[in-house]
Amino acid sequence: MPEIKRTLAEAMRIPKITPEALAIIKGGTPVSRTVAAADARAHEPNPKVQKAKSHPMISKEEPVAVEPSVPLTARVPMSIPQALLKAASERKQKKIRPYTHQDIIAEALQNWLHKNGYLPEKG
In terms of pTM, does the model score above 0.85? Predict the structure, then answer.
């Protein structure tokens, strides 16, 4: 099938858009399902609370609120992923929490944000 060649001017012409299509375009940026679901769960009146399991850093009586997680991407120095992998595997072998990459990173970020006044203390 032969290709139909157009001039640059023809290619750059904006086609007529129907009012319905224009309304969809101007409707706004769609929200990620994951973020929308996390936002909806975050505003629920009674978040799930569970008792903390034995942990060297947390007492058994202290309840831990289960907060929804959202995806986050960041570029870090090359040495951090290797050290994180080593820490996670050693902690998992010794059954010391946190031992998942996600939990270790979340705890480190929370500590830094609390220390620098960006995240209010819980309770």
Answer: no
